[in-house]
Amino acid sequence: MSKNRGVVYMRPGKVEVRDIDDPKLEAPDGRRIEHGVILKVISTNICGSDQHMVRGRTTAMPGLVLGHEITGQVIEKGVDVEMLDIGDIVSVPFNVACGRCRCCKSQDTGVCLTVNPSRAGGAYGYVDMGGWIGGQARYVTVPYADFNLLKFPDRDRAMEKIRDLTMLSDILPTGFHGAINAKVGVARSSMSPAPVLSAWPPRLRPASSARLSSWSAISTRIASPMPPRSASSRSTSMPATIWAK
Ligand SMILES: [Zn+2]
Ligand SMILES: [Zn+2]
After folding, report:
1. Which of 58, 143, 187, 221 is the right S-S partner for 36, CB 3.0 to 4.6 Å?
2. Cα of 15 to ligand 2 centre, how many Å?
3. How close is the Cα of 213 to the center of ligand 1, in Å?
4. What is the 3-state secondary structure (H, E, C) of 77-142?
5. Higher pLDDT pick, 83 / 229
6. 0.85 cut: is pTM over it?
7. CA geometry: angle at 41 spanning 232 and 83, to 5°?
8. Where are the beta strands (DSSP E) in the chain?
9. Which ligand places an atom closest to the C-alpha of 174?
10. Is the pLDDT of residue 203 over 70?
């Protein structure tokens, strides 16, 4: 019997925690992948972009297991995994990437050319992103583990801050990427503060990133055409689930 349970999209406006298949070291097309690991999920976020599927704004099919912001412990690994061991605590970037294609080699891992037969770019638990099973679950498979996973060097320290570290999968680096692309930098007195134009909560992350990088004079402004739609949307991308110690 399966030990796995996950958050499953049922229909617009409806998700359920259900029994799901145990993960295997297999790609969505059934190929055996020895470069992958299986994680016991420690923590995960509900992302704002999950809401697109849950609210019925996509072509997601019933049965899709959600979740692309995953922190977990390695419990099984393929024979080609060289830099990770059983028991390691790791952060999983939201985009699945091979590390070998032209895009990955130029650091454009969000549009990896090999992990989604339909188009460039793959992700866990997301419609049209390659069929990789999501990680709002007890267990999940991560391919290309040596390339994709960020190992936390000190297990005890990682567990002390695990809710903060859960932000490393998507929301913090997404905000950081935005701050870099916007060329936010150290301000001179004659310069205006950099406005961060986004809706809650992503607007906080570019601002946090700027602070982390010692960039100064940041002000945040909500410029979204849509106000927060509900308590659930205000709380998106905060740690939602702690599955295991
Ligand atoms: Zn996300
Ligand atoms: Zn690639």
Report:
1. 143
2. 31
3. 22
4. ECCCCCCCCCCCEEEECCEECCCCCHHHHCCCHHHCCCCCCCCCCEEECCCCCCCECCCCECEEEE
5. 83
6. no
7. 135
8. 5-11, 14-19, 37-45, 70-77, 89-92, 95-96, 122-123, 139-142, 150-151, 194-198, 218-222, 239-242
9. 1
10. no
| Neighbour tally for 74: CB within 10 Å | 21
Over residues 160-202, the pLDDT tens digits come to 999 999 999 998 888 888 777 877 665 555 555 555 554 445 5
pLDDT in tens, 104-128: 999 999 999 999 999 999 999 999 9
Q: Separation of 117 CA from ligand 1 center, angstroms?
A: 22
CB atoms < 10 A from the CB of 199, how many? 18
| Sequence spans of domains, the chain | 5-169, 171-226
Written as six digits, the tokens of 152 are 């936390």
**In Å, what is the CA distance from 3 to each residue of 21, 36, 45, 138, 139?**
8, 20, 21, 8, 9
Under 8 Å between Cβ of 115 and 130: yes
Ligand 1: centre distance to CA 200 (Å): 13
What fold characterizes domain 5-169?
Answer: Quinone Oxidoreductase; Chain A, domain 1 (3.90.180)
Condensed to tens digits (0 to 9), the pLDDT of residues 27-76 reads 999 999 999 999 999 999 999 999 999 999 999 999 999 999 999 999 99
DSSP-derived secondary structure letter, 161: T
